[in-house]
Specification:
Blueprint lengths: L9 H23 L3 E2 L11 E2 L2 H16 L4 H23 L3 H17 L10 H22 L5 H19 L3 H21 L8 H22 L5 H11 L1 H16 L12 H7 L4 H22 L4 H23 L6 H10 L1 H12 L1 H23 L7 H23 L12 H26 L6 H19 L1 H8 L9 E6 L3 H12 L5 E7 L9 E2 L2 E4 L5 H8 L3 E4 L6 H13 L3 E4 L11 H6 L3
Parallel strand pairs: 3-4, 3-7, 4-6, 7-8
Antiparallel strand pairs: 1-2, 5-6
Helix pairs in contact: 1-2, 1-7, 2-3, 2-7, 2-8, 3-4, 3-8, 4-5, 5-8, 5-10, 6-7, 6-8, 6-12, 9-12, 9-13, 11-12, 12-13, 14-15, 16-17, 16-19, 17-18, 18-19
């Protein structure tokens, strides 16, 4: 760790001031010269917005670098190659060149970087590393370009990523590189003042290509010059710092390929768009992705100081969490329903895959294999020293295949794969506990007969069972957690309704209102005459008082409808509620569940109501 001198703060301050001052100038010139992005059906913005914000970012970064940052050969390579990509993007903003022409420019820029020795040291083969690095540089550049789909999103994510890269440089003792990335991050923040929602200027391809390439190539300096040569930091740090662009690009590419659409085709089906479709505001969706980017960056910084096995475990947990989030968001419509329906109709394979992904059995099995390994590893890590060549860990490797097979068989036998995640209940959790217990008992018996328990610790199996149950239950309730944290697509929209009756029927009605978007209802809470229920919460919704409080509740919460959920209410009480609702122009409805017989005679069918 290098000491931070006060003079070092001058660099980012100057870069920030330049970006903040140059951006409105560029915006004014872009409007005068009609470099304006007009709204399109496959774009998110709704009004003409100035382009060329990348010019302000580039000028701020390069000016600061040339005048205040000490120059190194690696720094010149990054700045020069990124500037070349800026020019390619600028030409595209002016002339709208073809995708393959931009790709050629990206390949040339990547070749320049690789030629000067900046490569990802992920294998022992230099040619292989060079090829991987070229794909890395091109991939990250396009990932930032794809991420630029909502006000302030790409700029903010890039600023967070460059901030954590700066911390990595500081931790590695690379002062010059830290100053360069600090200037880059500060310029992005200066531009973000005008690019955040509602944005008055976009960065354009000149900005996204410059930012993406600068980030991708800068991470190579961190690896080439850093003090740590441990495998996990070398492999994971660059990926984690830029995890959100990688995640979004992978997510969109897979879904577009499955739907028969070109991955390069624009659309409103990115992670950010699906979060908005769930009911988040644009600002909240962007802030949520900022938070995930900060979390992945913090994990990247932390991995440098942790032991390899702990680093791998944390990386696996974080990746699993985002994978589950991606599976959940895949079920959210991110673009026009008519377009999606047409794609499904034209592509039978897509329809099959959607049905397959809904059942997700193959995904569940693969996920459980990872969870089984992770739980068993955790048990050994807690009981013994971290992973090594000790006898205990050799036994771990010998018995791991047995444990995986036995646990999967137990999960299958006890119905773990028969449930639907979004409806996971206490009965399912009980089945999980039985499956885990059975798997542990059978595994212990096999180990007893095969190895006579020589060198084994019985505590390992107990710890493994507890961790396995937590991981299994946690993965299954993940969708319920996402549904609780993220609003439904109709949250905050539709008619505001008050549910009368905070019992089982009321809870059932609430879940139907929250899950059925076609109803277009926005529950505000419950009303119940039972004083013992007042102030309680049901799925986060408060139970208000009854007995004369209905007018105040309607007024305070702008209630438009009252829904009676309970059948155990007298006609006199219904008449009172109806009178109070009519006096305030509020509609009153009553929940009614009917079972109708189906027959050839519709009149006969309608009359057979229990």
């Amino acid at each position: 760790m290098i000491p931070v001198k006060p003079s070092y703060l001058l660099v980012p301050l100057v870069s920030f001031a330049l970006a903040a001052a140059l951006t409105p100038v560029v915006r004014r010139l872009a409007r005068r010269w009609r470099f304006v992005a007009k709204p399109k059906t496959d774009r998110w913005h709704k009004r003409p917005t100035a382009m060329m914000g990348g010019v302000a970012i580039w000028l701020a970064v390069i000016t600061t670098y040339l005048t205040l940052v000490p120059h190194t050969s690696a720094g010149w390579v990054v700045a020069g190659a990124a500037s070349f990509l800026f020019l390619v993007g600028l030409i595209d903003d002016w002339l709208h060149i073809k995708p393959y022409q931009k790709l050629i420019g990206q390949v040339i820029g990547a070749a320049i970087v690789v030629n000067y020795g900046l490569v990802l040291p992920w294998t022992r083969s230099l040619p292989a590393n060079m090829v991987i690095t070229i794909f890395w540089l091109i991939g990250i550049t396009n990932a930032i370009n794809l991420l630029d789909n909502m006000d302030g999103l790409a700029t903010g994510i890039a600023a967070i990523a460059s901030g954590f890269l700066t911390l990595n440089f500081i931790a590695a003792g690379q002062t010059t590189e830290a100053l360069m990335l600090g200037a880059f991050a500060a310029a992005l923040i200066g531009f973000l003042i005008y690019n955040s929602n509602p944005a008055s200027i976009f960065m354009g391809d000149s900005g996204s290509m410059f930012i993406g390439f600068f980030l991708a190539s800068s991470s190579l300096i961190n690896l080439a010059g850093g003090r740590s040569r441990a495998f996990v930091p070398v492999l994971a740090v660059p990926i984690l710092v830029l995890f959100i662009p990688i995640f979004d690009t992978t997510f969109v590419t897979i879904l577009r390929k499955l739907s028969g659409r070109a991955a390069s085709q624009g659309g409103r089906d990115h992670t950010s768009h699906r979060l908005v479709a769930l009911g988040l505001s644009e600002k909240r969706a962007v802030l949520m992705l900022y938070g995930l980017a900060a979390l992945s960056g913090l994990l990247a910084v932390t991995l440098r100081e942790l032991k390899p096995d702990v680093s791998i475990a944390l990386l696996a947990i974080f990746t699993l969490g985002l994978t589950l989030l991606g599976v959940y968001l895949a079920g959210v419509k991110g673009y026009d329903e008519e377009e999606e329906s047409r794609a499904e109709h034209d592509n039978l394979l897509f329809a099959f895959l959607i049905d397959f992904s809904y059942k997700r059995r193959i995904f569940e099995v693969l996920l459980d294999v990872i969870l089984i390994v992770l739980a068993y590893w955790s048990a050994y890590a807690i009981k013994f020293e971290p992973f090594s060549n000790s006898p205990a860990w050799k036994l771990f490797l010998r018995t791991l295949p047995v444990l995986v097979v036995v646990r999967l068989a137990a999960f299958l036998a006890f119905g773990v794969y028969r449930g639907i995640w979004r409806y996971t209940s206490m009965d399912d959790l009980l089945a999980f506990a039985k499956a885990v217990a059975a798997g542990s008992i059978v595994s212990m018996v096999i180990v007893l007969f095969k190895f006579r328990f020589q060198g084994f610790s019985r505590a390992v199996f107990l710890i493994d069972a507890l961790v396995m149950l937590l991981l299994l239950a946690g993965s299954r309730v993940a969708f319920r957690f996402f549904r609780q944290v993220l609003p439904s697509g109709s949250a905050g929209n539709g008619q505001r309704v008050l549910i009368y009756g905070a019992g089982d029927a009321g809870e059932l009605l609430l879940r139907e209102l929250l899950n059925n978007r076609d109803l277009s209802y926005a529950p505000v809470g419950f009303m119940d005459d039972d004083a013992n229920k007042h102030g309680k919460l049901i799925h986060g919704f408060r139970v208000f008082g009854g007995n004369g409080l209905l007018p105040k509740i309607i007024s305070d919460h702008h209630v438009e409808q009252v829904l009676i959920s309970t059948p155990r209410i007298s006609e006199e009480r219904i008449a009172e509620i109806l009178s109070e609702c009519e006096a305030r122009n509020v509609e009153l409805r009553r929940l009614s569940i009917r079972l109708e017989a189906i027959s050839d005679n519709p009149l006969k069918s309608a009359s057979q109501v229990p």
